[in-house]
């Protein structure tokens, strides 16, 4: 049901003046007006240039692709919960991921997910995305006998990105990759190996490291040394944090580490919240994911309200937290980035200009490198030039939208 239309209908019953004798007609007029506004907002969020900074590759799988792969592997859709629209708790979300991993079993699948996600982002008006994934040793195809290497997994993702880039005409989504350490499955030694993997692909599109996985498993201290080493070698760091209650000490330790971005931060004590705001670390906020996994009681009470301050993105004021609206797992939660912006505007009464600056300001939080003069490596210098050009292209797309959109 269209909430705006329902509200308008109730308003119609309170009409006074000449229209008092025909409240139904007044309600219809109000409903049409409200529907028109809603349609215009939907057009706005779709056309708005957007930056996606928290999206898991496997969790962004198309539902049609997941069902197709499940059928090919003899997995019953109903038993695997593929018939249910969305998970309702965080534990159910991790159950869905286990199903996805049971269906996505080859490097061909991984390449397919990467290219399909790139096209989906493009269709949704995303101009830049940093996709994260946990590398797995997978065979090249169902017919292959031996599992491939983690390097081949990363190659498959990048190959999917490259296919999209070569096939797509006109403006394209800028794509970069973040490698994830799974705190529930990986050891400290595994984490160091994934850092080594990221460093091998650092000049080919891998821009950072992520710590993710079941937040009730694993200890932060086991993974901090690997992430410290990654940062020492120029990789950026983002941390899933504050996903469950009772992790205040861990959150304090993560704050002391001072990553380049935090993800979620749903359950943060008052003292840690104060430190988080003082830190200036950008936060990746995923409204639908947090709501459906019961990490927030309602959209109205989502912690976006605790961190958001309207800032003209042209001013680039660093003292205000950069809120990075993200999807987390658009396939699992059935919500593209345009819908996340629609929810933000609708729930927190942001107007179009505020939503524009919210989206544009996210560019400050990306892991794109900036030009420097102290790197002797030609490969590194070339990467910096490419990132600088990509940043310019993104800004140009925001500028073109700002100039051509019919502002209210």
Briefly say what this structure is.
The chain has 408 residues and is an alpha/beta fold.
Q: Would you kindly provide a written description of the structure presented here, covering whatever features stand out?
A:
This protein has a single domain, classed as TIM Barrel, CATH 3.20.20.140. The two termini are 25 Å apart. 50% of the residues lie in helices and 12% in strands. The protein has helices spanning 3-13, 23-47, 63-72, 90-103, 107-123, 150-167, 188-200, 220-232, 248-257, 270-279, 287-292, 304-307, 330-333, 337-348, 352-361, 378-404; strands spanning 50-56, 126-133, 174-182, 206-212, 236-241, 261-264, 283-285, 323-325. The protein is globular. The protein has an 8-stranded parallel beta sheet, sandwiched between helices. By secondary structure, it is α/β, with parallel strands linked by helices.
Secondary structure layout:
Elements: H1 3-13, H2 23-47, E1 50-56, H3 63-72, H4 90-103, H5 107-123, E2 126-133, H6 150-167, E3 174-182, H7 188-200, E4 206-212, H8 220-232, E5 236-241, H9 248-257, E6 261-264, H10 270-279, E7 283-285, H11 287-292, H12 304-307, E8 323-325, H13 330-333, H14 337-348, H15 352-361, H16 378-404
Parallel strand pairs: 1-2, 2-3, 3-4, 4-5, 5-6, 6-7, 7-8
Mean pLDDT level: 88
Terminal CA distance: 25 Å
CATH class: Alpha Beta
Radius of gyration: 22 Å
Uncertain spans, ≥5 residues at pLDDT below 50? Answer: 1-23, 25-32
- Mass-distribution shape: globular
| Spatial sequence of strands, sheet with the most strands | 1-2-3-4-5-6-7-8
Beta-strand portion reads: 5-15%
Instruction: Give the CATH topology.
Output: TIM Barrel
Helix content: 40-55%
- Secondary-structure-derived class: alpha/beta
Count of extended strands: 8
Total domain modules: 1
- The CATH homologous superfamily is called Metal-dependent hydrolases
SSE ordering = HHEHHHEHEHEHEHEHEHHEHHHH
Query: Can you tell me the CATH architecture?
Result: Alpha-Beta Barrel
Largest sheet report: 8 strands, parallel
């Amino acid at each position: 049901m269209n909430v705006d239309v329902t509200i308008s209908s109730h308003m119609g019953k309170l009409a006074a003046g000449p229209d008092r004798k025909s409240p139904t007609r007044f309600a219809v007029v109000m409903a049409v007006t409200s529907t028109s506004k809603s349609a215009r907002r939907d057009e706005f969020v779709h056309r708005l240039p957007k930056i996606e900074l928290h999206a898991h590759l496997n969790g962004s799988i198309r539902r049609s692709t997941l069902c197709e792969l499940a059928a090919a592997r003899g997995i019953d859709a109903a038993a695997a919960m593929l018939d249910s629209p969305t998970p309702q708790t965080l534990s159910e979300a991790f159950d869905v991921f286990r199903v996805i991993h049971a269906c996505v079993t080859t490097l061909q699948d991984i390449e397919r997910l990467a290219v399909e996600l790139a096209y989906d982002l493009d269709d949704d008006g995303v101009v830049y995305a940093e996709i994260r994934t946990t590398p797995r040793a997978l065979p090249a195809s169902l017919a292959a006998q031996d599992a491939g290497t983690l390097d081949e997994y990363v190659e498959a993702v990048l190959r999917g990105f490259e296919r999209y880039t070569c096939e797509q005409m006109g403006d394209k989504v800028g794509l970069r990759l973040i490698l994830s350490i799974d705190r529930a499955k990986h050891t400290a030694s595994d984490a160091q190996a994934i850092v080594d993997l990221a460093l091998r692909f650092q000049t080919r599109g891998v821009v950072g490291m992520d710590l993710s996985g079941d937040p009730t498993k694993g200890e932060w201290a086991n993974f901090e040394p690997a992430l410290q080493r990654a940062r020492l070698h120029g990789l950026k760091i983002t941390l899933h944090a504050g996903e469950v209650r009772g992790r205040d000490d861990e959150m304090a330790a993560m704050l002391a580490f001072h990553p380049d971005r935090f993800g979620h931060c749903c359950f943060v004590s008052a003292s840690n919240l104060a430190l988080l705001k003082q830190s200036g670390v950008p936060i990746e906020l995923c409204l639908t994911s947090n709501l459906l996994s019961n990490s927030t009681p309602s959209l109205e009470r989502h912690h976006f309200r605790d961190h958001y301050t309207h800032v003209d993105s042209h001013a680039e004021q660093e003292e205000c937290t950069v809120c990075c609206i993200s999807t987390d797992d658009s396939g699992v939660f059935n919500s593209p980035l345009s819908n996340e912006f629609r929810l933000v505007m609708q729930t927190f009464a942001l107007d179009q200009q505020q939503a524009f600056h919210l989206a544009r300001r996210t560019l400050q939080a990306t892991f794109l490198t900036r030009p420097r003069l102290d790197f002797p490596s030609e490969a590194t210098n070339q990467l910096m030039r490419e990132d600088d050009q990509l940043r310019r292209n993104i800004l140009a797309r925001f500028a073109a939208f700002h100039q051509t959109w019919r502002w209210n």
